[in-house]
Amino acid sequence: MKRLAVLAMVLLPGVAMAEDWWQGAWAFDPEWCAEADNVGSVTPAPIKITETEVLGYENTCDITDVQKMDHAQAVYLRLSCQSEGSRFDEDRVLMRTDETGLTIWRWFGSGDPELFHYCQ
Asked: Per-residue DSSP letters for 25-74?
């Protein structure tokens, strides 16, 4: 079985490197998705979440910890951010709204979560 898994990674590298459901460009307003290629340089624009960072307008965050909560369809991200010369740490919880993966809730640890839309 182990050989089969290794063979699949060699023959189908895209399968082995598939993004997690929470990675990609996400927008508070779906119209902002038109600027998905300009994240960080225009506002309003979506945020972009990769395996290693969260990018937004005038801020960049390195993802320093990821805790997947598959049973809750959620992921916890610990972020080390910089914005306009300041450095700070933040926590985020991203929660899937349904199986389509087209919307997520982004929660800062207090207050109401924000609904974000996947930019395709």
From this structure: EEESSGGGGGGGGGTTTSSS--EEE-SSEEEETTEEEEEEEEEEEGGGTE
